[in-house]
Amino acid sequence: MTRAVAVAFAVARKDLTSEWRTRELVPALGQFVVLALVIANFGFQIDSQNAPAIAPGVLWLALVFAGLVAFGRAFAAEREQASLEAMLLTPAPAAAIFAGKALAAGLLLIACEVVLLPALALFFGTPLNFALVAAVLVATIGMAALGCLFAAMVARVRAREVLLPLLTLPLWIPFIIAGGQAVQVAMGATGNYNQAVALLVDFDILFVVLTSLAARFVLDD
Amino acid sequence: MSTIVAHELTQRFGAELALDGIDFVLDKGEHLAVLGENGAGKTTLLRILSTAVRPTSGSLQIFGLDALRERARLRARIGFVGHAPGLYPALSAAENLEFFCSLQGVDRARVAETLALVGLSHAARRPAGRLSRGEQQRLAIGRAVLHDPRLLVLDEPDASLDSGGPDLLAKVMLGRSAVLATHDRALANRLCQRTLVLRAGRALGAATRLRVVR
Prior knowledge:
Strand content of chain A: under 5%
Low-confidence stretches of chain B: 206-214
Oligomer: heterodimer
Largest interface: A-B, 25 and 31 residues
Number of domains of chain B: 1
Helix content of chain B: 25-40%
Radius of gyration of chain A: 18 Å
CATH architecture of chain B: 3-Layer(aba) Sandwich
Mean pLDDT of chain A: 90
Low-confidence stretches of chain A: none
Number of strands of chain A: 0
Number of domains of chain A: 1
CATH topology of chain B: Rossmann fold
Number of strands of chain B: 10
Shape of chain A: globular
Structural class of chain B: alpha/beta
Order of helices and strands of chain B: EEEHEEHEHHHEHEHEE
Radius of gyration of chain B: 17 Å
Largest sheet of chain A: none
Number of helices of chain B: 7
Helix content of chain A: over 70%
Shape of chain B: globular
Order of helices and strands of chain A: HHHHHHHH
């Protein structure tokens, strides 16, 4: 168990160090989410009346598409460099390697959220509070696990850019429904915030366990 | 005990037959050269031996273990060099090896001695992406021996290596069993005791000094 955790952290540290030195992904994702908010701001004719109703949808749309790019790159880069096979030909558990990749991709998405959430508050005039940040972070965990699993699955096929959204988006819908509700309440709408976040935690547990079990078969066979 | 006992190894990719019933035995400390034209099945065979892929049919024992079932245990005892170096270009040469120390569960003290072994001590802090192709290949060979494996599986490791390449390969193969795929017959004769010639996925039995599994 200790060894698996050490492997997962080593993989995550390697991915984050590579990203820090190359700055390939996070700046592009940051620009993408800001552009998405600018387009939504003009496209929806935002005012103080409709902003709380529209902002959660815009947030999840931006987050979902940024996530597809982040998770897609997590394994595509390994395949391009032929380094995934070198990792898998070690005695390190495949589930630990997968967990490290998902952790790094999740942290990169959180870096993107650091830009997204203040920009949303700026463009839409919505509140930026702990409840909002917590709901988005809790949803990110399960989304990262699922996104990375499918990214690993499609990395070896040529049409991966098409297949990744087709496989991932349907399974992200529960996060978008529960996360959307939690974010709406955090932005001032009426509803049960705790229930929505508890549902997100349930989804996180379910998908983290399922993806960890499936990782070995997806990566190694 | 033999290091490798391969029996009727067959690999299909859809309708294409990449390997057709390969039999061979590799004894402890022995070096086997796999020769053949492009597309003969050398890489497919070596990827099976490295446990990267499972054969469609046939049996494979490495160190007495079933290589199709005991892959995790065997990987700690096999070093593999593939066609591509498989390095992380943003990490330095030393950081690449340190990362694989974490995955292999070996002490990081091995990094300095491995870099010295492959002649890259001077480039330890240089990003792998800025190394020459030959230096990258040296680093990939270093990664393959980082955990002191008993079996080396080398797929055209001489590609891109300079004139010191054969000496380096002789050094890393010393005291280990090895399977080496190459187009260079002179290198095969220098480094290996036996050869296996493949053509269209089949072993050319008559031309080899191959011991066939009974």
